[in-house]
Amino acid sequence: MSGVQLGWIVAEDEWDEFKREVEERCYTEDRVGPELERAWREWREIHSMEEYVKQLLRAVGLPLAHPEKTKGTRKQLSEKSTTQAWVTVHPRVKQEMKQYAKGNDVQEHEVLRSVIAQYIDGGLVGYVTEKLERAVPEVEAAVAELDESPANSDEADAGLSKVEKKRRWLARYLMDESETPKPFTSDDFGQALEAMPYRGSDSEHMRETHREPVLDRLGFIEHPNNSNLFVPVDKAREYADELEIPGPDAPAFERKGFDDLDTDQRTRAIRVAAIREAHRRGGKGRLTVGDVCGDGVFREGSPSDSGARSMMERAASTKGFTYRTTRDTMLLCNLDNVADDLLAEADVSPTDGATSTEAKS
C-alpha cells in the first residue's frame, strides 16, 4: 500500500528540529516518514516501563507529570512560524492520529506536536529517564532516613526492621561498590558479618539466618561444585552445564549434600525418592530406613537411623505417603494420591510407563 502525505500544520522550528534529530539518529533525511510512524506508535502505547515508573513516583509522593512537561508535550508556546509537515506516512498511521485527535477532542496539529516533542526529548527512554531523575533522589533520601532509625529499636515506626537493616548492609558490603557484584567466598561472608555495625558476629546462627536472603538480594547462589564459593545465578548455570552437574534450577537436594540441606529439603528428598521408587514399581512403592541411610536418596552424606525414621515420619504428613512401623519401618507411597507438584519435581506421572524414569538406587 502506497503512503499518503500528512500535511498537518506544525511549528516550523520544532519540525526542523525533528528532522535534524532523525538525520542524527539515522544518518539520512530519508527516514523522516518511518521515524514519525515509529514515534507515533511509541507515543500512543502505554509501555510497562511507564507504569512502573509511575508507581515509583507515587510511592515517593511526587506528581506523575513534571511541573513543566507531560508525555510528549512542552510548555505553552507563544505564536510561532508554522509550516506543513509534508511527509509520507502509512495511511493507517494518519487515520489513527486523526481518530486519536477526534476521540480526545484535540486539534490534529496538537497530536503531531506531542509526538515529535517526545521523539526530540529522547522517546520513551527520555520520558522514563526524566521521571527517574526526579524519583531516584527521593528514594535515596527516604532510604537514608530509614537507615538513620535506631538499629535496635522495637518501635513500630523505627523504619526498617533490625533483620532487614543487617541484610541490606551485608549486601552493600559484599557488592563493594561494584556495578556487578563479584564472586565471594564463605570466609568473605563471615568477614562481612564481623564488620557489620549492628549487633551480631560471624556465628553459625548468623550465617544460617542471613546467608540465603542476602544471596537472593544479590542474585547469587552457591557454585555448583564448591559450596564455599558464591557466584551469580547465570554463571552458576554456565558452570553446571560445563561440568554436567545439577545447576541452580535443580532442587536443592540434587545440588547439595545432606549436611547442607535444611529439614524441609531433606524431607522433600525422601518424598521424591519414594515417588521414583513407586513409579519404578508401577504406582506403589516403599522406602526402608536402610534406603534412606544408603546412597540412593541424598547426593552426599546420610542421616542416622533415628534421624531417618524421624524424617520418614515427617514425609508421611503429606497426602500419598504412609509411615508404617509394624514389622519393618517403612515409608509407603501411592502415586494415585501424590500432589502434582511433587510428581513434577520427581519428573514422573502416574500415567507414564513404569520405566519412563529410573529410580535412584
- Radius of gyration (CA) equals 31 Å
Strand content: 5-15%
Count of individual beta strands: 10
Q: Give the SSE order as H and E letters.
A: EEHHHEEHHHHEHHEEHHHEHHEEH
Number of domains: 3
Structural class: mainly alpha
Q: What is the typical, i.e. mean, pLDDT?
A: 82
Distance between the termini: 67 Å
Largest sheet: 3 strands, antiparallel
Strand order of the largest sheet: 5-7-6
Which ranges are low-confidence, i.e. pLDDT below 50, for 5 or more consecutive residues? Answer: 66-78, 151-157, 353-361
How many helices does DSSP assign? 15
Given the C-alpha coordinates, what overall shape results? Answer: elongated
The helical percent reads 40-55%
